[in-house]
Fold this protein.
Amino acid sequence: MHTFVQPNNGSGGDAGGSGGSGDADRGESGGPVIYSLVCQASSDAARDEWMQAIRRCLEQTHKFKVVLLGESGAGKTCIVDQFVNQNFADLQTSTIGAAFQTQTVVTDEFTAVKFDIWDTAGQERYNALAPMYYREAAAAVVVYDMTTRSSFNKAQQWIDELKAQAKKGVIIALAGNKLDLVEAGLADKAVTAEEGRSFAAQNNVIFFETSAKTAHNVNQLFLDVAKQIPKEAPASHRNGIRLDGKRDGDHGEIGSGCC
């Protein structure tokens, strides 16, 4: 079984969740990722097998809301920008309220997962707005700056709040960001991987150390989240194209709206 991730800009590493390579050709919706392998198939039978995989993938697209939480300056926006646009900006303005983007990943079960990503502001004055964004979210990614102890403490508070107030069964991931600063010797590590991993294990959440700048573990973080979200039914295809020529059904989308 192969794992496909969109976009291809990182590799796996430390995690409290499931593993995976995190390497794949980039595509727009899941189908194009697999199609790049169809072109490389060595026989008609192999091409037919991959076309069946495309069909299964497109017919099993799920849509989920995911929210990013964390102290201001932890790198939430940079992680989202790297995941969605394969981009990193050294100078990033603070998010006001929340920002919205979308991205799709394809799990190793040939299931496409489209994320509606809400990147919330980390400033204290916006904390009261956070429940509007994590309410009914299928997943939450809590980000901390591994070079700042207070950032990790705030991440712990966010996880406690999610467990108390978010919907039952929400998938939570903890990301210790700015690994590139530590590896380059530009900052000391205030929170070790062992401490982050231990806290994640105690709270039954996914854990990764990430770098939004180098893309280290960024894809794998979202891929593990996608794999762990329960998938009850395929998303609606009313706005899509079916490969088998049938009319689109009236299946409802998984997940919720913006808030």
Remarks:
- DSSP finds eight helices and six strands in the chain.
- The domain at 62-228 is CATH 3.40.50.300 (Rossmann fold).
